[in-house]
Amino acid sequence: MTRGRKTEGSEQKAEGSKQMAGSVKRDGPKADGGLNCGLRIADCGMTKRQEAEGQNKGSAMTDDRVSPGGQGSVVQLVVFNLEGLRYGLPVAAVDRVLPMVFVSSLPQAPVITLGVINLHGQILPVLDLRRRFGLPAREYGLAARLLVVRTSRRVLALPVDEVQGVREVATEAVTPPQAVLPGIEHVAGIVALADGLLFIHDLEACLSLEEEQQLDKALGEAEGVRG
Fold it and tell me: What are 71-83's pLDDT values in tens digits?
């Protein structure tokens, strides 16, 4: 993927863009504006056969967080960057990659919620992983990307600095997080690569039960106002 890629009309809208909801661009392409701006994971360098294999392997990871698997097996991860740190999610958990889009506020939502987007009629909460991981708050510019991901409970959008693509990792190379960094949260596994660590994000643990309930309530109230 190209870091500097812009959607149609983004150059005209870039000027005057301001920070919103802590670190979100107010202006930019809208997800529900009829633009075919989403990239399926197959567009990140995977063939359809590889995508199908990745879904099967990724599903097992989603169910069991990160399971060791058999010797010689691999898992396919969508790799992304946040504040210079490298994270990964199982291919099966990632639906598509979008350019950064306008984010509407969502009152009474959990603190890590930046707002919502409308993706072809579906309202998706946008969660800020920077807040979840305790990283410095920064503005997500037009070069940022949105990962549309699926948990066992809902579909979410996660803004990230950059999406590097799909990477295969041997399952035996995945180390339990507590063995490397005791006390680390929201990480399902850690992989030591030649050029640094790769943290596999525990998507199912991104929201606590209380936050899930708070988010449901906020979305319900917002739907009632629109209705």
Answer: 669 999 999 999 9
| pTM across the whole model | 0.70
The alpha carbon of 40 is separated from its chain's Cα centroid by a whole number of angstroms, namely: 13
Which residue segment(s) compose the domain that 221 sits in? 10-226
| CATH number for the domain harbouring residue 87 | 2.40.50.180
SS3 content of the chain, % helix, strand, coil (to 5): 25, 35, 40
* 4 part of a folded domain: no
Structure tokens at 214: 């708070």
CA neighbours within 13 Å on the CB side: how many for 113? 23
Considering its fold, how many domains does the chain have in total? 1
User: For residues 215 and 126, what is the distance between their CA atoms, to the nearest angstrom?
Assistant: 11
Does residue 118 fall inside a structural domain? yes
DSSP 23: T
What CA–CA distances, in Å, run from 22 to 58, 134, 181, 205? 32, 14, 29, 23
Residue 100 to residue 28: CA distance in whole angstroms: 7
pLDDT band of residue 154 (cuts 50, 70, 90) is very high
